[in-house]
Amino acid sequence: MSISETGKIERNATKHAMGSVMGAGILMKEGRVFKKRRMGTFAYHVLSLPAIILSGGVVFIPAIQTIYSAFTNWNGISSNKEWIGLTNFQELFGDWIFWKAVINNFKWTLMFVTIPVIIAMTASVIMASLHLGSKSFQIIYIIPYLLAPTTNAIIWLNMIFSPNAGLVGFLQKMGLNITSPVGNMDTALAGVAAVDMWHYWGFLAVIFLAALRQTPQDQLESAKIEGCNGWQTFRYIYLPSIAPTVRLMLILIVIYSFCTYDYIYLMTSGGPAHATEVLSTFSYSLAFSAFKFGKAAAVSLVMGALGCVAAFFYTWFSRKEALE
Q1: In 56-134, where does DSSP find H-type helix?
Q2: 72: β partners
Q3: What is the rounded average pLDDT of the residues 171-200?
């Protein structure tokens, strides 16, 4: 073997050794980075452990107990829970009050996904177009939402719906044949919903206004140059821009509507003659008036199932947007 060939072999061996050393260094460095990431992830899990324990104690454990109670005849007092299978659900599905509550929940949802959304959207678009989105307007709109439901209910029952000292009584003295809507079986649900919508639409308006402000100004200027009117600007510029926010709020409204309780209980307690009965008030009356906690838990499971359907659609829409 010549000297040149020997030198060439030595150089190749040196390069191979250096490559092996560099490869080993890179692997060691990647190992240290991976170990550091694992330690960081472990630290995050440790820090989140109190929240997990709290959620388990406040949410998951009561949820499991509710699911189990729905298949028993527990009265809420006795320590014994006798397993009765699907009897509670069979009795519910044969109870006309339950179906009345379900229908009222759907009516409530239909009213809430239309009327307050349209009012809030109109107000927010006007404020965004006329540059009236000052803090004073937003504070005025959101004041009813900040007041406690008890306060709002007392205001409407005594200052608006009262036939003695409220607006209804004043109109009656003026000669108008008008009665309190919450005292009429045909109008009670709409009357209570009107109070809740009055308290809620300002919050929606503030949310929609914040979303409208994120609309690119160049698109608005282009629409103005092209001669678009107000409806066209809203339809083709504003609405596509805030569509994710609107979709999220609609899903939350649906979930909220099937869990609504406070205004109905404060103003009518489900009356008159179950005209405003919803699933939440029906469950409450079963639990704390009839002491049928097992059947009340079954009603709660129905409410949870309806809420899960709405949550499923929200998750599906969110995943679809992420893929797009």
Answers
A1: 61-69, 87-93, 96-112, 115-129
A2: 83
A3: 91
Burial of 64 (0-12, 13-18, 19+ CB in 10 A): exposed
Q: Report angle CA 50, 51, 54 to the nearest 5 degrees.
A: 85
Four-residue CA torsion sign, 92, 97, 100, 102: negative
Cβ-contact 212, 241 below 8 angstroms:
yes
Query: What's the CA gap between 224 and 73, in Å, rounded?
Result: 66
Amino acid at 256: Y
Give the mean pLDDT of 138-154. Answer: 88
Q: Alpha-carbon distance 139 to 177, whole Å?
A: 36
Write the pLDDT tens digit of every residue in 94-135.
999 999 999 999 999 999 999 999 999 998 888 887 776 567
Structure-model confidence comparison of residues 26 and 72, the more confident one? 72
pTM listed for this prediction: 0.80
Q: CA 209, 211, 215, 221: dihedral to nearest 10 degrees?
A: -10
- Cα separation, 48 vs 46, in Å, equals 5
Q: Which residues of 66-99 are buried (b: 16+ CB within 10 A; e: fewer)?
A: beebbbbbbeeeeeebeeeeeebbeebeeeeebe
Share of the chain above pLDDT 70, in %: 84
CA distance 143 to 202: 8
User: 298: pLDDT confidence band, cut at 50, 70 and 90?
Assistant: very high
Compute the chain's Rg from CA coordinates. 31
Longest dimension (CA), the chain: 124
Give just the sign of the alpha carbon dihedral 27, 28, 29, 35. Answer: positive
pLDDT reported for residue 28: 54
Tell me which residue has tokens 């006309």: 96
Burial of 204 (0-12, 13-18, 19+ CB in 10 A): buried
Other beta carbons within 10 Å of 27: 10
